[in-house]
Structure to design on (336 residues):
């Protein structure tokens, strides 16, 4: 029997990426159709929702994938309603690290194989994080803003306004899985002292050779010139950056968040920024997304922000399509 595969590309996992990559892994013995999901607003949802962080309408998915045995998507909504409307569906491949746009309980009930692309954007986020640290500590983003406002400030040469170079920094990473490990190794190449907190990860031999150390959370707060978040959002990590956490930081510590907005209690962060104890903040993620246009945090002069783009690179799109195509090939082989 020929497997009918429907790939729903979008603005990031472009439709033209699928044919060559899917055929490369699965061969020519499949019936592949590729569509582009019509653009729509991103629905963020909330932690605990059956599906969240999706774009598009359920009706569009149902219409395009009605006869599919296998479905390859990025951020299309794969709700219980969609799953129930696709009677032939046996495989779903989601080209992102966490398949939060899929109702996973519904896939289990239907015994549908669910594959995703863990670490697909690890390199992209890691590179972005290093850039964010340098940009914040060396006032690059601030300088750009000033130049656009026709300001030629020399106060950045005043000692009290300058930042450390990476080679003189201790940088604490909260979370040391795919992304955290790459960040740590990149920073080590600059001569930074890297420490991390992660109850689920242990030091590897390569880390030891680079001088990377595992520490407790309190020690990380006390010791770090910069703290960067790379942990997953769970019940234990939600709002972990609260007043208690912030009160333990070194004076003028920098905070970088390219992980999840919900990790940071934004009211507490704003309070400590106003107190002057936090030196600078770079945020790529927020709660909610997008933030309100009058959110005082994003307008604070010590906060630099980007619209959740750390994972956006052509390479991460290629890795994502390859990962779910390879998973599909494995599933086809196992179910011959």
């Amino acid at each position: 029997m020929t497997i009918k595969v429907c790939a729903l590309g979008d603005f990031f996992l472009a439709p033209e990426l699928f044919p060559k990559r899917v055929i490369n892994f699965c061969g020519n013995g499949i019936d592949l159709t590729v569509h582009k999901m019509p653009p729509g607003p991103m629905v963020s949802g909330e932690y605990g929702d059956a599906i969240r962080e999706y774009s598009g309408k359920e009706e569009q998915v149902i219409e395009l994938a009605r006869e599919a045995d296998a479905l390859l998507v990025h951020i299309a909504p794969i709700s219980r309603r969609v799953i129930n409307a696709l009677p032939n569906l046996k495989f779903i491949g989601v080209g992102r690290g966490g398949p939060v746009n899929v109702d996973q309980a519904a896939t289990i009930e239907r015994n549908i194989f669910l594959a995703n692309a863990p670490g697909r954007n690890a390199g992209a986020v890691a590179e972005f994080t290093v850039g964010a640290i340098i940009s914040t500590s060396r006032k690059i983003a601030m300088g750009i803003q000033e130049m656009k406002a026709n300001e030629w400030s020399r106060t950045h040469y005043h000692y009290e306004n300058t930042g450390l170079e990476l080679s003189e920094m201790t940088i604490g990473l909260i979370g040391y899985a795919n992304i955290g490990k790459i960040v740590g190794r990149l920073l080590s190449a600059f001569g930074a002292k890297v420490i991390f907190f992660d109850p689920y990860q242990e030091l590897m031999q390569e880390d030891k050779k680079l001088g990377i150390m595992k520490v407790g959370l309190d020690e990380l707060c006390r010791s770090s010139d910069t703290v960067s978040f790379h942990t997953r959002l769970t019940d234990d990590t939600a709002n972990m950056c609260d007043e208690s956490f912030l009160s333990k930081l070194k004076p003028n510590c920098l905070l970088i968040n390219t992980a999840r907005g919900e990790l940071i209690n934004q009211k507490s962060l704003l309070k400590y920024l106003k107190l002057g104890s936090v030196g600078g903040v770079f945020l790529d993620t927020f709660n909610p997304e997008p933030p309100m246009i009058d959110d005082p945090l994003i307008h604070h002069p010590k906060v630099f922000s980007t619209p959740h783009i750390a994972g956006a690179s052509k390479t991460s799109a290629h890795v994502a399509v390859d990962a779910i195509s390879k998973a599909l090939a494995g599933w086809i082989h196992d179910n011959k």
User: Anything to note?
Assistant: Residues 122-305 form a domain with the Rossmann fold fold (CATH 3.40.50.720).
